[in-house]
Design a protein that fits this description.
This protein has four domains: about 10-55, no CATH class; about 70-230, Substrate Binding Domain Of Dnak, Chain:A, Domain 2 (Up-down Bundle), CATH 1.20.1270.30; about 245-385, 3-Layer(aba) Sandwich (Rossmann fold), CATH 3.40.50; about 400-630, Rossmann fold. Helices cover about 50% and strands about 10% of the residues. The protein has 26 helices and 16 strands. Bound molecules: FE(4)-NI(1)-S(5) CLUSTER with Oxygen and iron/sulfur cluster.
């Protein structure tokens, strides 16, 4: 039976999988049906061995676990643990980058400072004195300030919270007792709190969720983004190619998948240095393509083609054209090695804590980055030799996308219109209604919703209503593949007001085309850029973020990381649309607090809606309400 599929470019490969008898996520999802209702509602508890306990949400079965825990307690504990999973990933990512940065400063790792302006900006924000110090000394102090956020015990707010939190929200969090001090302590305490026999108060647990949201936002996303920009450069606007059609039959294809640019930047460098070696094997060269968030990092800074989002991470292997897929951390499906086995493809894992049966492991240490990257690229070249004669199927779909909308890049364009007050043109256009509002599209592609084109439909509906969209993560891949990040999308999809603004901005940027209506701001850690932009806008207007006519949406929630990012956005005061529902519906308290009461506390509110048209309408109604309250 033909399985459901996601989009045109993958159809041909799903078909190929079926002909070859290869199983994919779509097949496995189907065999999992029906999925557990208790799990979906969040009412299954496995925190101790008197359980697992399951609470019947309809009150017909058990209403309490063996220990007496209610559905509210169980759901809130589970939610907090999901957040810990997400925040640990982001804090782990940031720590990994900071440690590589430190090794670079000690002369032990072959990296360098690419963006001195960003270093100066971060250092001054942290209150570091410059007097006669070298860049290296300043950078060392910056790195130490970051590591302090993972170790301090004095209860002082984290340095990165003080550095990056918007003023009014910082004050509000202070009043709520949420100014977290040490990311690792917070993660430890959240695990402690949720283990059997500790916190049973759903409200206290939900407050802890907000704390972990702040840990994620500042010691994870913001910290990672700052160090990555200093080391590898702050992204600038450029055009790139996207979709599975970016693979090239006659070249050595290296797919980079995961999250950290510390690995991928080096592979890219060595792919270019070893081009001649590849040619000696008969290849026309080396083609490095990006998958998932590593794809976003590389495309934003280096213009590397964006081959595919998370759901395409196994699909891309079905082309038979990928010679090596190199992975680091997060969102890597264990199934990739099984599919790779059917071809000549090498899967290379690089982190000691991310190993997959069937993969080749090359431990990638920043100290030996050059040797290891060289070795990995040579493995890909060798694999290409084995590919000779094998059939490859590369979908023809390929489109163009504008990428690289860092806050700095956006301000550079705006400064060409008003050099002394760059945000003024944006604000004027918001007031006039040309820009009715803005929405951040973040997160993943859901295997449960992808065939409904949830993200694309919502985006088109919002653009029609003059809502500007910024995007990160795999959602950015989806938007790019739907040609929403090309300048042609502006006339095709936007309302008249937004169209006029984007034409004017294109002109200001020195382009002969409008800017696209969906702006690629990066990977999931780059959600920090969205928060910075919102903070700057709110600050310029003298209001809180919760008063702006804006919203966030994770239209296709998959990962725990999306939960922790979403909670940070809730703490910042945003309406956060999510589909499918997070696992909270089994708790009346969690559902009410997150979808209603929280609005009176931080200004944020969770909004669950699985129908794209209704979701867009709900967001538009929220924007209308915010505009009204601002008197515009
Ligand atoms: O951090 S969007 S599937 S790749 S979690 Fe993962 Fe989701 Fe993709 Fe990036 Ni983000
Ligand atoms: Fe059951 Fe309580 Fe143990 Fe959870 S902690 S498994 S609800 S007894």
């Amino acid at each position: 039976m033909a399985m459901k599929t996601f989009d045109r470019s993958t159809q041909v490969l799903i078909d190929r999988a079926e002909v070859l008898g290869i199983e994919t996520g779509i097949h496995r999802l189907e065999s999992q049906q029906p999925q557990c209702g208790f799990g979906q509602l969040g009412t299954c508890c496995r925190m101790c061995y008197m359980g697992p306990c399951r609470i019947d949400p309809f009150g017909e079965g058990a209403t309490k676990g063996v220990c007496g825990a209610t559905a509210d307690t169980i759901v809130c504990r589970n939610l907090l643990r999901e957040e810990v999973g997400g925040a640990s990933s982001h804090v782990g990512h940031a720590r990994h980058v900071v440690l590589a940065f430190k090794k670079m400063l000690e002369g032990k790792a072959p990296y360098s400072i690419s963006d001195r302006n960003k270093l100066v900006e971060v250092a001054s924000g942290l209150g570091i004195k410059f007097d006669g110090k070298s860049d290296k000394e300043i950078a060392t102090e910056v790195a130490d300030k970051a590591l302090e956020d993972l170790s301090r015990q004095d209860g002082e707010p984290m340095n990165w919270l003080k550095l990056r939190a918007p003023k009014r929200e910082f004050e509000m969090w202070g009043n709520l007792g949420l100014l977290v001090s040490n990311a690792h302590n917070e993660i430890e305490e959240a695990m402690h709190r949720t283990s059997m026999g500790n916190d049973a108060d759903p409200i206290n647990l939900l407050l802890s969720c907000l704390r972990i949201g702040l840990v994620d936002g500042y010691a994870g996303l913001s910290m990672a983004t700052d160090f990555q920009d200093i080391m590898f450069g702050t992204p600038q606007v450029r055009t790139v190619e996207v979709n599975l059609g970016v693979l090239e039959k006659d070249k050595v294809n290296i797919a980079l998948h995961g999250h950290s640019p510390v690995l991928s930047e080096k592979i890219l460098e060595w792919a270019s240095k070893l081009e001649d070696e590849a040619k000696k094997t008969g290849a026309q060269g080396i083609n490095v393509v990006g998958v998932c968030c590593t794809g976003n990092e590389l495309t934003m800074r280096r213009g590397v083609p964006m081959a595919g989002h998370n759901l395409q991470s196994e699909i891309i292997l079905l082309t038979g054209a990928v010679d090596a897929m190199i992975v680091d951390m997060q969102c890597i499906w264990p199934s990739v090695t099984k599919i790779a086995e059917c071809f000549h493809t090498k899967i290379v894992t690089t982190e000691p804590f991310v190993k997959i049966p069937g993969a080749t492991h090359v431990s990638f240490e920043p100290e030996h980055a050059d040797e290891e990257a060289k070795k990995i690229v040579r493995m890909a070249i060798d694999a290409f030799k084995e590919r000779k004669g094998e059939d490859v199927v590369i979908p023809k779909e390929k489109s163009v996308a504008f990428v690289g909308f860092s806050v700095e890049a956006i301000l550079d364009v705006l400064k060409k219109i008003d050099s002394s007050d760059p945000l003024k043109p944006v604000i004027d256009n918001i007031v006039s209604g040309n820009i009715y509002g803005a929405v951040g599209f973040v997160g993943c592609p859901s295997i449960k919703l992808r065939d409904t084109a949830m993200t694309e439909k919502m985006a088109k509906e919002l653009l029609k209503n003059n809502v500007l969209i910024v995007t990160t993560g795999c959602t950015a891949h989806i938007c790019a593949q739907a040609e929403l990040m090309d300048s042609t999308a502006t006339d095709k999809y936007c309302g008249e007001g937004l169209k006029a603004v984007l034409h004017a901005l294109g002109k200001a940027a020195g382009l002969d085309v409008p800017l696209p209506p969906v702006w690629h701001m990066g990977s999931c850690v780059d959600n920090a850029r969205i928060a910075t932009l919102l903070g700057a806008l709110a600050n310029r207007l003298g209001v809180k973020i919760s008063q702006l006519p804006v919203a966030g949406s994770a239209p296709e929630l998959v990962q725990e990381k999306a939960i922790s990012i979403g909670t940070w956005f809730l703490a910042l005061g945003l309406l956060v649309h999510i589909a499918p529902s997070p696992r909270i519906l089994g708790s009346p308290v969690a559902t009410k607090v997150l979808t209603q009461d929280l609005e009176g506390i931080t200004g944020g509110r969770a909004y669950v809606e699985l129908d794209p048209e209704k979701a867009a309408a709900g967001i538009l109604a929220h924007i209308a309400q915010k505009r009204k309250a601002l008197g515009i």
